[in-house]
Structures are given as C-alpha cells and as structure tokens.
Write a structure and sequence with these properties.
About 40% of the residues lie in helices and about 25% in strands. It has eight helices and eleven strands. It is an alpha/beta fold. Helix 1 links the parallel strand 1 and strand 2. The longest helix is centred in the last third of the chain and has 17 residues. It starts with a strand and ends with a strand.
C-alpha cells in the first residue's frame, strides 16, 4: 500500500514516514502543497496524509485540486487547525477524515486502516479487460490462468492498471518504480513492458500495453 505524506514540517513528515514504513506501508513524503498536488495527481497512492498550513498551496487547495482531477484517493487531513469551521472546510474540500494535532499514533493508524478498508476490493485487486492484478500475491489472473510477477513487473503493471487508458510517461514510471535518485534509464521501462506483454499473452489476456511516441504507455483491450 502506497501512502503520500504532504507536510511542510520535515521532522514530523519524516517521523510519520518512519512509523508507517515500519508497519509495512510504502511511504513517500513531500514538503509543500504544490509538490503534493503534483504527486497526488499521479493517482498511484492508496492514501494521502495532508497538512493544512503549507507553502505554495495550503491543504484545502491541494484537496480541491485532487478532487477536481477526479482522483478518489482517500485523504486524511492532519492539522493543528481544530475549530469546527476548519473541519467543515477540510471535509468540504474533499478530505475523508480530519485528525487534529497533537494526535496519538494509535489513533492515526486506526484512521489509516479505516480509510483503506473503505476502498473495498480495490485494495486487493485491480481489474482491466478480462484480467485481474491481485495486489496481495503480485499475480496476473485471466480466467483459470495466472502468472506471478517479479517485484518490478508488479510495480509497473500496477501503475498501468491504475492509469488504464490514461498515458503514463516513461519518466513517471521510472520515478515511481525505480525512484527519483535511481540510475535506471528509459530502456529499463521498455524491457519490463516487454516482459509484461509476454506474460499477458501467456494467460490469454485481452489487455494490450500500447506505446505512444513521446507520450508513454497506456492500456487497451483487444
């Protein structure tokens, strides 16, 4: 499960990242609202943890931006602004839950688990065409046939199935799968897309990974 923390207090953001990473979550942190909105728009996260008072864009603006992009990712607002008016504004902006600072880590974890449970089957699987990606066992399934994916294959396929018909650039795939500081190059993406095409064909999937020059990849069905 991937969580994005958008919090300008770097010490708090990094401590939250450490707490959640120890619980098995894949966590990233950014430190201003503008970067947070850009990252959230990628649609690759299962949950956003969002501060309110931040430079460039405040949390309310980020939440409205995310919802305007038709991104349904759950949003947990985590802020010292505790008045009734602030909570109402946060919920109206698109937040799913509003937790005030200071908070107990047990309450935070309970809120996160509750928000993730609300997503139902989408937490466990992604479906496109006649094919399912089981997130719990990193497996592509088509009818009675299935094939296990390597870690990198799984990460690339998950991005593509979350984006569906929307193009995902090689640069974004590189950043999300290999990391922003990685030495990996675009050829790595091409190689793993090739692996995935073969595995999709091996199980009789009608899902095609389509490449568009300079735009990246998206999914179509035959």
């Amino acid at each position: 499960m991937k969580i994005l923390i958008i919090e300008d207090d770097k010490l708090l953001a990094d401590s939250l990242k450490d707490l959640l990473s120890k619980r098995g979550f894949d966590v990233e942190a950014v430190y201003d609202g503008e970067d947070g909105a850009d990252y959230a728009e990628l649609g690759v996260y299962d949950l956003l943890i969002l501060d309110v008072m931040m430079p460039k864009m405040n949390g309310y603006e980020v939440a409205r931006h995310v919802r305007a992009k038709h991104c349904a990712t759950p949003i947990l607002m985590l802020t010292a602004k505790s008045s009734l008016e602030d909570r109402i504004e946060g919920l109206n902006a698109g937040a799913d839950y509003y937790l005030t600072k200071p908070f107990d880590s047990r309450e935070l974890l309970a809120c996160i688990n509750a928000l993730l449970r609300r997503q139902g089957n989408e937490v466990d699987e992604l479906v496109f065409g006649n094919t399912e990606l089981d997130l719990s066992i990193s497996t592509l399934i088509c009818g009675e046939k299935s094939v296990r994916l390597s870690a990198k294959e799984f990460d690339v396929m998950r991005l593509l199935m979350q984006s569906k018909e929307k193009n995902m650039s090689k640069e974004i795939i590189l950043a999300r799968v290999w990391g922003y500081d990685s030495d990996a190059v675009e050829n790595h993406v091409e190689v793993y897309v090739g692996f995935l095409r073969k595995k999709l064909a091996s199980i009789g999937s009608n899902v095609k990974i389509v490449a568009l020059r300079k735009l990246g990849y998206h999914l179509e069905t035959e």
